[in-house]
Batch of 4 targets.
Target 1
Amino acid sequence: MKIPLRYNLGSLLARRTGTAMTVVGIGLTVAIFVIMTALVWGLESTFVETGHDNQLIVIRQGSLNETNSYFGRDLFQVVRFLPGVSRGENREPLAFGEIVVNVNHTRIDGENSNFILRGTVEPALALRPEVRLVEGRMFRGGLRELVASRAMSARFPDLALGSTVHLGRSDWNVVGIFESGGSAYDSEAWGDYGAVAQDWDRPVYSSIILRAESDAAAAQIRTRIADDQRINLQAIPQKQYFSDLASASTGIKLLGNFIAVIMGIGACFAAMNMMYGSVMSRTREIATLRAIGFRGRSILASFLLESMIVGCLGGILGCLLALPMHGISAATANFETFSEVLFHFKITPGILLRGILFAVTVGILGGYLPARRAARLRLIDLLRE
Amino acid sequence: MAGPLIEMKGLSKTFRRDSVEIPVLHDINLNVYEGDFISLMGPSGSGKSTLLNIVAGIDRPTGGELRVLDGDLLSMSEDQLASWRNHHVGFVFQHFNLIPVLSAAGNVELPLLLTPLNRKERREHVMTALKLVGLTDRADHYPRQLSGGQEQRVAIARAIVTDPTFVLADEPTGDLDADSATEVMEVLQGLNRQFHKTVLLVTHDPRAASYARIRHYLDKGILVERDS
């Protein structure tokens, strides 16, 4: 393309009102697109970033997740001594039974919602190295003590450090706050397994978390558990378990994409309208360029580039508008576990780049037809005008 | 004398509007030689601009023969014509047709962007052209900062910057006051006399036409007489 870039930039400035309005229109569309994408990625990564290689979650056969799984404690002894289960420094198997209950409680906004209370044991922390106690201390065995994620303690005031909260049949003291780096555990509170099982009158396990010695050992354990009809359990790789839970985001993803496409179409028409107006007001310039010797395809490329510049500016504006959402926490209902999932909007450089590309695409789609019209205007007709 | 640059034999042009045929040019026989300064005068609607457009390859005749620089324009594609115009034609329009968002130098540079010259060479050509029209001190000014006469002189500089074979000027003084018109015509006359540039001028202004060495008259599409 030989028509100088300063011609396009000058033309955009000369029609600054129309240009600005189109840039804002595209910018708002891109902001929505980036925010929705960040929401989906924040939600997905909450699950995708949870889990470790060679670790398995054992739940009842036929259950979809821990909250609707339960089995007798005797089965725990069968599983923990299976060949291939890794051993800790004390030579004990790294396998721990847990119970998961849904607790309905009042949020900071006054509304009620469910959250997951996990009854576990302190040694199980070894299988969750992403969890760090950042304030207070760990709960003690046999006592009605809780540790809550920082995100949960912000969302449920009764889960703040030092608070006492009535859950189940007892009052529980919140003795510690943990963080788990944005994993699914940020949506949980933990207590002693025995205390939780007793308070909810459930002398069972919801799940067993265990670490296998190797990939091969993990596969063997899965096979043994699946083949043993007596125990009626299933072992799922921990990463897969949580990524399957991420299906909670599917609906939001579809909705987000649908909204982005609809708004994108609108933005295309805005760009198209602006460019058609620009072409029709510059027929004399187009005639001059053609008379000088610029070919139709140079005209096409020039006007298309102009539209892409508008798109790009809109994209940058949209990204800037969306950036304040980065890191903001939000919650949604997980229809797999019937509890709240807390997540953070995550605006990554990749998402910003997608936003810019989305905007440039809007510019191209919106500008193509007007640019083609400009290129196809007959010189003789232009000169007669 | 060398052969004519432009040779028209029995040239005609008819426009069709809906089902009505409107003859605009009829049996035009005209030769233009290198170094000629020819004016085509006539009232509005006499076909002057149509003839100019045909010579420039912008329009096509309906009948007759046209040879320009020994080439057959009628067989060229649009892209070939565009390239041909860039090399051989300098166009001066009645309304100047400067690009408002480019400076005077930027406007003059436009035809050079289609040549292999580098930036430095283009700048030299631009300043040379502006010097010829007496506007080097206005190189960085935008059209809105120039008078009508200055704008038309910038347009002339743009028309000659590639050293085209001929300059086609369509009513170049049509939008100018008397003093500015004189300035512009003196520039065109200077290009013809000092640089032997071939100029084809279309005008309805007798004063502008008087600068030409050969004057033709078009009336209702027919070339009726010639003065020189």
Target 2
Amino acid sequence: MVQFLPGLARLARRGMAGWAILVGGVIVVALAIMTLAAPWISPYSPIAINAGPLLSPPTSGYPLGTNHLGQDMLSRVYAGGAIMFQVAILSVIVCLAIGVPIGLIASYTGGYADKLASLVMDSIYAFPGLVLAIAIAATLGPGVVNMALSIAVVYIPSYFRIIRSQVLTIKELPYVEAARTIGATGRATLFSYILPNVIPSIVAIATINFADAILTAAGLTFVGLGLPVSTPDWGWDLTYGRRLLTSGAWWVIAFPGLMVVLLALGFTLMGEGLSELYNPRLQK
Amino acid sequence: MSLRSYVITRILLTIPMIMLLLTFVFLLVRVLPGDPAMLHFEKQVDPRVLLEFKQKLGLDKPIEIQYFEYLAGLLRGDFGKSMQDFSPVSQQIFSAFPATLELAIWAAMIMVLVGVVLGVQASRSYDSLSDHSIRVFGTVSYAIPVFFLGEVMIMIFAIYLHLLPAGDRIYAGMTPLGLTIGDLHLRTGLFVLDSILEGNWTKLVMSLRYLLLPSLTLGTALCGIFVRLTRGNMMETLQLDFVTAARARGIKERTVVYGYALRNAFLPILTMMGLQFAALLAGAVLTETTFSWPGLGRYLVDRITFRDYTAIQGVVVFFGLVVAMVSLAVDVIYAYLDPRIRF
């Protein structure tokens, strides 16, 4: 921790990008802690029906009000991020596990492998992501893993494209040529010499991908492909809140909605800051 | 490369992309675990009923035959039959598409207008308070789920202020008729255009009132990237000699910025519009659901509730074809405007 703090101070001195990473990181960590601590800090069970009166506006007993089932919104806000984190983390892992190796190998080998991979990836990339995710999630059925998989398919091409553009430049650099001259195998060149230089871009894209995954997961829930009612979920609150708008119950959507925005914003800030630091050209 | 050979190459490149997409969606509905026909009945169905059901949809045939029938159907504009009532999906798609198109057009105008104006403003006041607030706005607009923004808009403008309708497209019976000359009827399905063609101002105002909230929501949610793009481009351009020269000649600052410098940012903005079209359609799915806007997106969401996999496949394929056509068109326009791209 003691060694960690000067690092943070150094980050803040890197200007706007450093601040963006710092502020984004604080938001994400705070929300993660809140989600993990939910069982201990929640006044009620987030899924207990009739924990309070139906559709009560914020009061001292229910600081964020209650929904149409009498569930306490504060407890739901505390617990509702767990699904978002799970889906986002899982989908980023799948993207890394598939997108990174394909991107590295295809662009390093070049030729037909590269052409074919690019064609497939560009076709997915050009397609409206959410529509594709909807189609996949509808076929796979509900569940955290299925949601994560359908989101991953949509975002793998982003990893591929970034990695490919980097590898194409890096593999022509003199140090890579030097490595090959001293007898490094193709595999060693790719993984020990090229990959380390691509990692910063991978980190940046993965962070932005977290934000996208969260927004897409919320979108999937909104069109009815989310998890069963028994799971507290910000996305579910936003979905049902739409039907309660006419009754003027703003608190049912406002707080879960702000949490989604905050979480996505935290990751976006971090991602933008990271890509500005590591890869200024990406900003254009 | 001449413009013509560029266009031909570009069209030839679109074909494998479309084929890949068609094949992927085809396999998605047939090969993935969990037979969609079984899923449609939530796995509780008499095998004889299931077989009859599959026969009606052509899902009982060998997969390669199904594949060729599917492709041949698409060439005729046939997007398959609904699992719900075996009616052709294309009919529903074609009747819902104008609503989505109209929403997308207006949202795109708002997206570009807001993005470009804010971007220019930010670049002119670099590192000032307004520059920072515009950048924060750009980032926040990216992080807001479009349906949450829509719900907030409904809450403020429809429920509290009673200024605008909360959803739907227009009262039943008020649908604009379009242009009628003798026996000739010209109707686009785009209500604003149809109202003007009909010459009915009441319907025009009403169509615009229903359009305003959904298109404002979708446009605002997507404008962030244009803010950043315009800001970056303008900051570079405003440093160039020709801008200084224009200022030195005493040309009004407004003209220098919007008439001279902004022209340089036009091509990147056009490219981005092409790229954002897919995001626009994806956003439209959620916006339509929020505002009960009777377009393709709402039809898609509606089909999900009925576990109507063949209809879902049809809509997804249609979306894919539209996006491929638009990106082709943007690339061709781009090549026409900027000869450098062809070499």
Target 3
Amino acid sequence: MDAFLENFNYIVYVVLMMIGLYAMISKNNLIKKLVGMTIFQSAIILFYVSIGAKEGAAIPILDHHQMHVAAAHDDHADTHKDKADTHEGEHADTKIHKADKHAAGAHSNHTSAEHASTHTDKLEAPHAGEHGDHDGHHGSSEINPAKFSNPIPHVLMLTAIVVGVSTLGVALSIVQRVHQGYGSIEEDDILNQIGPNTDG
Amino acid sequence: MRVKPIKVFALLAVICVGSLLLSAMGDFPAFGDPNSPANAGQLATHYITQVRVETKVPNIVTAVLADYRGFDTMFETVVILVAGLAILAILRRPACESSRRFAEIAAMKSHVDLIQVTTCRLLIPVIQLFALYVIAHGHHSPGGGFQGGVILGASFILMALVNGLRATLLRFSEKKALFLSAVGVIIFAGTGLICMLLGGNFLDYEVLHQILPYTDPVMARSHAMLIVEIGVAFTVMSIMFLIYAVLSSGGEMEGGL
Amino acid sequence: MADQIPVLIILAPLFGGILVLLLGLRYRSVCFPIAVASLGVSLFSALHTFRTVLLEGPQRYFLSGWERGGGFAVGIEYRIDQINGLVLIMIAFVALLSVIHSRSRVSVETPAKVPQVYILSLLLVSGLLGMTITNDAFNLYVLLEISSLSSYALIAIGSRRSALSAFNYVIMGTIGASFLLLGVGYLFIQTGTLNMQDIHGALMAEGLINAPSIKVALMLILIGLWIKMGLFPLHGWLPNAYSYAPSATGTLMGPLVTKVMIYIMIRMMVSVFGIDFLYEQLAWTKPVSLLASIAIIGGSFLAVSQTDLRKMLCYLIVAEVGYMVGGAWVGNLNGMTGAIYHILGDALMTLCLFFVVGIVVAKTGEHRLSAFKGLFKSMPLTMVCFVVVALAMIGLPPTCGFFSKWYLVRGGLEAGQYPFVIALLISSLVNAVIFFRLIEFAYFQSPDSDTAEAHGAHGESGAHGDEGEHSATAHAHTPVPMKVYRVDPDLDADSIITEVPWGMKAPLLIVAACLLLLGIFNSTVTAWIADGLKGVGF
């Protein structure tokens, strides 16, 4: 049961993907196949974005305070990346925005992050200013990689979403062309019109 | 009720593929684990910690998108361009007799609703201003060329829905849209080309500090990212509207929804 | 500036496409020169880069200027070694010849869409070139999608039947590309990087290579690529898509797309997963070789049963894909060398076949096998080239087909993959049947008298577009007699069917000559390939 809960994002995406795949293969109506294709691609996007989620992490945008720092601080930040663990994650930033405006299904990310933040709001005050605290108003301007979501899946999925939309657009125009040519978008109807072996 | 063989085959295929995918599940890191190889890996950590030193752009996603993996983004822009061209190539045809007759009949009924027109007259400039804000603030907040370009395109689609496709095409014609989309890609690829001419590799923005005034090599990266994001926005805006125009009018660009 | 030449390979067709977009929509006549010029620049850059690789070893090019900082790749990099240098030259060369040859066909079959065809073709070639040269797994996916989108559109531009085939291609192609993306995602989860070399390093270093998720990733990537390359039984989209497409599109895509996908599979196998893992630890060589043998036999027998020339060509492509997949998976250097050499040779062979079939269909208006009857008298040069490519497909020296079969058979015997060897031999026999039948038609029979009625039947069904016969004759801008109307069966074929103009003939002759050259210089080429394979740790 624990393994199921830990990895439920994978199960969700597999189920979605299989729904989409089933629709793509078995549906008769061309538009329904395209709906299946969209579901299929959305599941892959969901999968990738869920990879980048980190417990208690915020969006990968640096704070104003963290931007202006001397290069010497970066050595500190480097040593931090090995110590990143869930304990540090509990001292999460109070201002947790919507973590990812691109992800379709990152809700689970939000709720777990907000859980951590509401938990730690009460712990925040006595621990303010601690090393690695990601608080823009006061405290150090170290960058703790564990406090930021992994930016790479977001970047990749920006591209994948764009590619998916483009493919959908081209596919829709092909369906319109088929409809203009055959008068129908039901596959068996079209195949009946074509007949067994002509070039129709 | 007979079960069609294709549905049985589809179900079998789905079960096979699904179990294949789920079989690897035990191996994967737990959801939200900050120490997973992807999250704690060298590449992600490098991006998060070094982006302020190497590019001075707070939004790590924009920095990776427009600079570190800028080449991918250029081709993504080309993907959108190809999609628009493809849809035009597949569907575009001169308006034939039957649809022109329909257009005359449709024009006799008034499709323009006063409430919608007035509301949109107020809303659309604000939407477009917001889109420009999203493009310009891509460095500091979630945003960037794609997002802003889609909002701009959506504003034109809104105009077409409310005022009619013909009225919108008078303002933003097909030729203009194609030209702007090409300009967008030229801005992006041209920036890369200029970098090459100045001695760096393709899309190596650092060498642009030689021609951009008052910048050092790192700020040149930040500025060049804005330039390429503007290029992306041009292309996305034009192609989004073009796709809508072609698909909603069946390629004839006369009637529309 | 000279070290910027590798990136010109991809940039030239890209800029060419944008230029055609800006100028070609208004001034039709600039489309062709721009296309030829950009492909020429690309070919020259590919040749220059290959020469640099031969002199200095594998080259790297770092885009956006991000070199490998701290031992891992931060940006996107290109890597050119002997193998993909050869494949790059092949792609640019085939594309250039195809564009030159199909010039008149484009204006005949899709007169309203000429600039669009050129733009999409240039972007397709740019995507294929980029796929071959890149060293980044996600960049591979983006470029794959560029070439896929352009190919969907290029196919759908034709008749309504081609639009339907394009739709099936979209569905299957998306499944294939998405599986590839998913496989890359699995690799990313476990290694945290997207650069092919770094992925390999991470897999080796941490012993990850034995994890079940990596095996699943490999399977997903393979299945995705097999769908895109048309390996039997995942080839369902290929025959319809390539035979109903406009002939210019078929000529460009047929020789190129499947071969590039095969190269990508080899690249993934060798650079990302590593040959030791694949051949020794996984023990997948037997099942995959068996699959390849089934593909070869299935493709060959389906080809021999076809009566339509272009469908027959498509099934021959399917069989050839089986050769290359089998060669890559037999499990030794000879097989892999044979597979890569066959990529080069098969691209040229398929191009030559598409040229010949295109010329025959254009001149006689027929696309059944009987179109070949008596053509030796009227089109001797074309038929001579056809004989050369027939010998290559069957596998007779000194054409390249013989040497690739030689390496593949040797590899198969060494590895003990007997089903593969038997399939290769059966396929040669079947090819012999197909091609000798056509040669017999061409040399020993005279054209049918029922050709005229067949024209009427085929003209309406519009194999090449909805325009029909009338526009074909009206819009052809080269003086090519398009249809043969036989009123008197005693009329000599000479006086009606003549040889095609040099714009279509010259590329055909060049390709046929290359088939012979590639065969004669096979030892040089295979030495280069072997060097390249050793450079990646074979």
Target 4
Amino acid sequence: MLIDSAVAEKVLERALSRGGDFAELFCEDRSGFSLTIDESRVERPLAGRERGAGIRVIRGEVTRFAHVDGLAEEDLLRAAGDLSSAIGQAATRPEPVPASAAADGAEVEVDPASVPAERKADLLRELDERAREAGREVTQVTVSYSEGRRHVDVANSEGLRATDDRTRVRLGAQVVARRDGEVETGFETLGALRGFELLTDDPGRIAEEAAQKAITLVGADPAPAGETTVVVGGGFGGVLFHEMTGHGLEADAVQKGASVYAGQMGEKVAESLLTAYDDGSMPGEWGSGAIDDEGTPCRRTPLIEEGKLSSYIYDRLRARRDGTESTGNGRRESFRDLPIPRMTNTYIEPGDADPEAIIAEVDRGFYAVSFGGGQVEPATGDFVFGVAEGYLIEDGKVTRPCRGATLIGNCLQALTRIDAVGSDFEMKTGFCGKAGQRAPVGTGQGHVRIRGMTVGGTAA
Amino acid sequence: MAADGLEAIGRRAVEAAIGAGAEDAEAWAEGSRGREIRVHRDEVESLTEASERGVGVRAWIGHRSGYAFGTDLSDQGLREVAEAAAAAARVADADEHSAPPEAAGEAEEIEGLRDDAVATTETTEVIELARSIERTALAVDRITGVEEVVYVDSDGESALASSRGPSGSFAVSQCYAYLQTLAGDDGEVQTGLGFGVGRSPRDLDPEAIGTEAAEEAASMLGAGKPGSRSCPVVLADRVAASFAGFIGGALCADEVQRGRSPFADRLGQELAAPAFELVDDGLDPDGLASSPFDGEGIPRGRTRLISERRLLAYLHDSYTARRGGAASTGSASRGSYRSPPVVSPSNLIIEPGDPSLEQLLAEAGDGVYVTEVAGLHSGVNPVTGNFSVGATGREIRGGELADPVREFTIAGDLLGTLAGITAVGSDSRWVPFGGSVRSSPLLVGEMSVGGA
């Protein structure tokens, strides 16, 4: 509990003192620490702590929002009063704010803030060494450690009260390899909604994996351009589904007609072998939470069931517009932001295809193991993804590594062309940016094959 | 909050850090107010009123530096931030070049960084501005919708205090508006983007912003894929801005010294086409990144980066200057008080040339006009400068704009592209992509286009 329920009630009452359908007080105490090793030197230690609140009032279709630093009662009341002043109706009476909350945070075995910073520095030194031992081609290693804790407390005028205490820990390793004047980069991460215990099981492997990727790529030929069959790898490969389909299912884009999936509910958007979920309740996963940032419990939402579109991704506001319930996806970066519909952990359910067979059935194609990132235009469905690690498939075998490839296409089309989903499965962690807000998200899948995609390459 | 109040907070934070065991310390305090308004179908969808304040402290102990920030500006809060900064410094490894910046001359006031109109313009007026942007766009033929019009402004003050010398404060206002339009025909949807930036709402031209987005979307209807080939490419000003931002990033000495830039070891070399001149200008009152001094108190300046074919300078903060035996170019930048200063371009200026856009297209003859690129973060290798990014635009045929094209890539490498710029257009405007860039269209003699 960050705030006394009597204070919360007063703030909500003030926010609705001149009318409105809904008011919410979101309080947050966030803190974090990060540290980097670069050129084998531990540097950039960064610690921060912020406390503050965001208050919103919704009347009809209009949302008014204000945020303040600190949780002082007079500041909250003043902000709530400013919000209410523009409305000018009879007061709306909020429901009483319960003193106890509905949800609590995931359990953390080892609070990262309790671990001496020196131990984190040693961990970075260990990863730096692991990466450098991976091969003579390794010329640069950068590893970052970050921990963050978000204690949130939500109360709204409908009588909801919920809290969550989210601790996340993440390591990211970036390795540059050089050979004969050519330079390539490999990247690997490890992150979870967990405490420092996440890092007890050989975290050094990610440094080695990042180094291996860079070394593999440094000898690679430029990727050829053209239309071909693409096999997308497990884990990081899930970024493709997140970008090309997930964003188009977020209800804000759908309601503005800025999604190719608008009006497609219940329609067949893929072959029946495809089932996909968004699941913020996966224990310990990077994108998970007990509740979202509006106090709705996180849950598993089927997005596509056997090829048919089965749900959009909702926060409260967009759910109300569609006459449905929030799917627990109202997320915000901090108390300074309005909640918007966001993915949590999004994944394609494992299918029944043997991942090796998925590749063996391809005469000529491209194997995209991981993406450097991507971008999609939700209104048109056009997307582009940079392939961080990719290989040619020749006569059913993964042969030469390729660098500089991009996948370009249209998501409606690409989704219908998925003709195999592997039985393997892996989740990976990332950050997703939307409307200027950054959110931790998980992506997952096994091997997935897409027929007829455009690979943009740099080969002449 | 008054700037002298922020300076006093900064001084108290510095004292607290020294008290916590730091040998030297520097504090950056900020206070700002701002609005964000989103309009959709003539209705205000959301209206945000933001007020923010906070402080960040950088502490040094024996060539080790650490950083901490917080929002609690009470004496107790400042003490906690200062102690966290000193504790953080003890974790870092010693680095002989890590030390507080030495005072480097007086920073001069810049007129015009703040327009009082940002504070005096009523919210109802800026809502009307956003609405008129939307109306303008919707009035254009074949426009079926506007995703939303976003208006954002901020009015803030920043202050720096240091145990070594530099101190001061300045006030800056800025605002911008943008929208995405949808154009449709027979089930097809195309999008277009329009934007404007300035110091206050009176710098924004709603007609121009709305029209740009609408015309772009409408012009894209019926887009196909261009044929894969090597051909002349004209980069529209927005795309040129992203390209300039990519170059500016690679010219930051931090990247150069750490061997992560294609420009490493190339100072003084002839590597660019004569038509292309690039300047970093932290003093231009119209540039939203301008300020009297940088994120560590060094006066901002004007640095010629690429001129007469040659690479003339890297961008330095005090750390990279000490490490590289150079002088700081006043390029320590801060996203906010939440992050320590890092080397970054301020405003990048592409010096405009003589030809109009029409003349650039005529000179290209047959090629592609690129109006937008996507995937800059993933499709660019900052170490080698190789890039392959998704693009949208128009075919150029017979020296004129022809069919719209999308879903293609343009690929190349930074140095090759830099050497291949055959002309720079005369039209010039501020673009907020790739940082703050005063940009002009560029004609590149040959680029690899990957399409059908």
